[in-house]
Amino acid sequence: MPDHPRPRTIALPVITAAALLTASASPAAAATGTADGVTDLRSDLDAILEDPALEEAVSGVVVRSLREDDTLYQRRSGKPLTPASNTKLLTSAAAMEVLGPDHTFDTTVTAERSPDDGLVRGDIHLVGTGDPSLTREAFADLASDVADSGVTEVSGDLVADDTWFDSRRLAPDWEAADEPYYYAAQISALTVAANDDLDTGVVTATASPGPAEGTPVEVELAPHTRNLTLRNTARTGPPSGDRSLDITRPSGGNTFTASGELPAGGDRFSTLRTVHEPTEHAAHLFAEELEREGVTVDGGVERGTRPAETTELAQRESAPLRELLTPFLKLSNNGHAEILTKTMGREAAGEGSWEAGLPVIESALWRLGVPPSGVKLHDGSGLSRTNRLPAATTVHLLEELREEPWFDTWREALPLAGDNDRMTGGTLTNRMRDTPAAGNVRAKTGTLTGVSALSGYVTGADGEPLVFAVLNNQVPSSAARDAQDAIAVRLATFTRDEPTPGPDTASERAPVPRQPQDGLECTWAGTC
User: Fold this and answer.
1) Where are the domains of the chain?
2) Selected catalytic residue, list 79, 88, 342, 444
3) CATH class for the domain made up of 17-100+323-525
4) What is the pLDDT of residues 430-468, one digit of tens each?
5) Where is this region: Disordered (predicted)?
6) Which helix (H) or strand (E) is 75 found in, with range?
7) Claim: this prediction has a pTM higher than 0.85
8) 106-168+278-319 — its CATH code?
9) Which of 77, 85, 452, 455 is catalytic?
């Protein structure tokens, strides 16, 4: 039995998602519409959502006017649905309210005793507070600052202190099969960002074919530290062959294995893989950077807690939250969401955990004027399938945030449809190009297998600002995205009093190139 209302029996134009996505309004098309723009809009959105591709879907949809303060469309608006990465709308807004746009993350290096003629007697401590932007270059800068302080030798250990957060690395209801993949990286208060996208708790694994068939494939991990082991059994296959190469890491360890084949003369293969215990990875990376700076650590690399009384040797402050929002929201970074969740718990309740942070998000929603009716959170990113969020609550949040002094900064961090710049278009870079929605729709995407969402802001054809939320469950992600894009394009052409495009002139409209769709966020799959 389908989970959404059956198609109505009144006569409706059959406007599929594909028809709207391969169309842009023309004067001829406008002539076929009616004078009641709202009625036309509702009929068209009904038709999109009653597409056979969505027959088994459960969809919650709300469209409201920010100018007229009225609801233009709603369907199952109050039903709590799995939101996927639409959860990040709540997490990011709460973080701006709880932590503030100027919040920064500090990483410090301290010693038990002040250096004496270059020697630190005892341990030095690398202390993290969750900075998601600690790249290799950042650790190199910290090591350089330690050397500049006059330290040349440490008689004790390098001790990594990640106790700003608890020791639980993975949310309890994340799927175990996701653990090797970068969207499910372990969460720590001390972690490495492996690239310019600031993906935390991962390494970049690259493989290049050898010079001839049968020769070993060249494989690298970056950053590759001493606590990681790489086993390579991969071989170069025939030039006409398919890639069967994969790089795996078993749960609970840091032995990475490259196996399979990479075609001779073919492209280099690159992927991200999570590390086990990101704190240890960060500490070993810092130890290597100290060594490069001529600072010798006589002991080993350990985990522990900084003593109450220490001397600061170096300190790094991250960019403020208002700037970190861009890679977080544009690229739908799960690690950043969970770091912020635990940071809010630490800030408000003195405990950097999911158990402390998630109630802080709900409390923040109340303060933002959004009672969390129907909201159930088990993580901050949306990777959990047990999260619940109604479309009505999503739209309510999007409306209320306009009153916040940081709203413009937050809104700018949302992906912008069809923009070629990844740090502008984000997860909407390849969507709605060459349509009235391109450069217009700012919205947060969300994708899990069988779950898809798109919620945000769009301006109608006559300049009327609109807010919308579309949450689709129990549906192939590609079909849901087609419908979401069709809805967004239709909203971008909306006017109240003028005729709107009819379905009879689709053949007169220029086709829009569609991007191949898969089951993941495009950033998760590396396609945007």
Assistant:
1) 17-100+323-525, 106-168+278-319, 202-274
2) 88
3) alpha beta
4) 999 999 999 999 999 999 999 999 999 999 999 999 999
5) 231-265, 495-528
6) strand 71-75
7) yes
8) 3.50.80.20
9) 85
